[in-house]
TrEMBL record:
This is Multicomponent Na+:H+ antiporter subunit D. Pfam families: Proton_antipo_M. Coiled coil: none annotated. Residues 126-422 form the NADH:quinone oxidoreductase/Mrp antiporter transmembrane domain. The lineage of its organism: Archaea, Methanobacteriati, Methanobacteriota, Stenosarchaea group, Halobacteria. The chain crosses the membrane at residues 6-25, 32-51, 79-97, 109-126, 132-149, 161-183, 203-222, 243-266, 278-296, 303-322, 342-360, 372-394, 406-427, 494-516. Residues 446-481 are annotated as: Disordered. It is found in: Cell membrane. GO terms for cellular component: plasma membrane. Residues 462-475 have a biased composition (Basic and acidic residues). It is a multi-pass membrane protein.
């Protein structure tokens, strides 16, 4: 009976996506309660499925009772269950965050739930074609959510994502077609043996792998096919940025791991060293390019977006290294990056909503006015660098160690160099928060704060703020000197609390290296 949990995880959010639109004909603002109740239910079901998988073993469900290869199969193993848990936790957290941060409106929450259903489907499907269908659901709903800001820039970013994402989906579908031509099946378990029978050096099999990986490279946003990601993350509403940065590329990277190890298997990689080395080179370049581009950015969301290009390059490199240490690191970093990046975007959203700040320059002195949010962002940033104890450190440590074990010293060196570059842009953030004097720039429509007034999340404004150096008041403030601003409406204590809890969580998970190993080991043992 427990295998029923798998179709529930896919079907419930997709069916619930109709409710905000249907009830919206009679009730206003019914979308958020429906989304909150649904995502909380998903969290409970995901936890139940995880308990079954990690205590009893993988779950399988044949939809409609039709066995493969005719029927569609859902599979919940150790890897997919971890990703499902991540989707459930992040989606529920972002719904709570979006209660105040917005966007509002019943159509938004319909799209939100449809996106969650698509992400669950990608994580649980055991069929290559259905993976394409769910990836398309994810893609189409993401386009709509990015454009939810209704600005011209958001519409452009969504359109760019639509065009490039469609190319990625098309490449993936071509690869699936080649795999079907070579084997006559699309079920992942059946393909495992059918591809071996067809021959790993068969031209159709090689072409299938090449097209599928090229499609995933676009979906994951590896350099140089990453160009949709910075615009989409920057222009989307803050709640949407947090959600898609944590889950969309993460689930695509999960799909890459699933297809490489469950469908093509490690024997394909061993039989085609040129293909393996080529993709590994692409991933390595992505690590360096993403890190270097992130260092040059001053807009916070854009900097975090380029950071993702580097982090996913690291995960892709670990997948191609193909030993148990590197694969363990890839999975840990996949989960850790989703948590860290989603929380960082939520933190940036809190500061933007409170003070209208979006750039490093505008973050000057914010630690005095938003100590909890600034502190949480700082902790999350250091975790992104890989400072122990944090889940960011665990993932990078396993990947670098796996690269050394596999003799890939260049990859290990690039991971180290990327860590230094990450430290460079995180250090700029810390320097602005804590070591740059003065407050926040006075932005249009925001009134200056009175000296000593309560701060956004528990701090207080310095008594000398608003005074000149000689202490004679603040009748004239030179344009070059920033002044503090009042908190804008649109920030709640819950938003701040979620960011702080996320920061505590990524540190706590840094102590769980042995737990992660024990959870992942059964999957790694089966595929390597």
């Amino acid at each position: 009976m427990t295998d029923v949990l798998l179709p529930l995880l896919v079907a419930v959010p997709i069916l619930a996506a109709v409710l905000p639109l249907a009830f919206g004909l009679r009730f206003e603002n019914v979308g958020w309660p429906v989304a909150a109740a649904t995502t909380f239910g998903m969290l409970v079901v995901a936890a139940g499925a995880a308990w079954e998988v990690f205590t009893e073993g993988p779950l399988y469900h044949e939809l409609g009772g039709f066995p493969r290869p005719v029927g569609i199969e859902l599979v919940g193993d150790e890897l997919s269950t971890l990703v499902v848990l991540l989707v459930a936790v992040v989606s529920f957290t972002v719904v709570l965050y979006a209660r105040t941060a917005g966007p509002r409106g019943n159509p938004f929450y319909s799209g939100y739930l449809l996106l969650i259903g698509g992400l669950m489907g990608v994580s649980l499907t055991g069929d290559l074609f259905n993976m394409f269908v769910f990836l398309e659901i994810v893609g189409l709903t993401t386009y709509a959510l990015v454009a939810a800001d209704r600005s011209g820039e958001a519409a452009y970013a969504a359109l760019k994502y639509l065009f490039i994402g469609t190319v990625g989906a098309s490449l993936y579908l071509i690869g699936v077609g080649y795999a079907f031509l070579a084997t006559g099946t699309l079920n992942m378990i059946d393909l495992q043996t059918a591809l071996a029978d067809a021959g790993y050096t068969n031209t159709l099999v090689r072409a299938a792998f090449g097209f599928i990986v090229a499609g995933f490279a676009i979906k994951i946003a590896l350099f140089p096919v990453h160009t949709w990601q910075p615009d989409a993350y920057q222009q989307a509403p803050d709640s949407v940025s947090a959600l898609i940065s944590a889950l969309v590329s993460t689930v695509a990277a999960y799909a890459l791991i699933r297809v490489v190890y469950t469908v093509f298997t490690i024997d394909f990689l061993a039989a085609n060293p040129a293909i393996t080395d080529g993709v590994l080179l692409l991933a390595t370049v992505s690590i360096l390019a993403g890190s270097a581009l992130a260092v040059t950015q001053s807009e916070i969301k854009r900097m975090l977006a380029y950071s993702s290009v580097a982090q996913f390059g690291m995960i892709a490199a670990a997948v191609l290294i193909a030993n148990d240490t590197a694969l363990t690191g890839a999975i840990i970093h996949l989960i850790g990056h989703g948590l860290m990046k989603g929380a960082l975007f939520m933190g940036a959203g809190v500061l933007a909503a409170a003070y209208g700040v979006r750039t490093l320059h505008e973050y000057a002195g914010l630690s005095a006015k938003a100590p909890y949010t600034a502190g949480a962002i700082s902790v999350l940033g250091l975790a992104l660098v890989g400072i122990p104890p944090s889940i960011g450190f665990l993932g990078k440590w396993y990947i670098a160690l796996g690269a050394i074990e596999g003799g890939h010293w260049v990859v290990a060196g690039v991971v180290f160099l990327s860590t230094l570059l990450t430290l460079a842009y995180v250090a700029r953030l810390l320097e602005k928060f804590y070591f740059t004097p003065s407050g926040v720039e006075h932005l249009g429509g925001v009134e200056p704060v009175e000296p000593g007034a309560p701060a956004t999340d528990g701090g207080s404004t310095p008594e000398h703020d608003g005074e000149n150096d000689d202490g004679h008041g603040s009748e004239h403030v030179p344009p070059a000197v920033p002044v503090p601003v009042n908190r804008r409406p649109g920030v709640s204590a819950v938003m701040v609390l979620l960011v702080v809890l996320a920061a505590v969580g990524v540190v706590a998970l840094g102590f769980g290296g042995s737990v992660f190993e024990s959870l992942i080991d059964p999957f790694v043992g089966r595929v390597l």
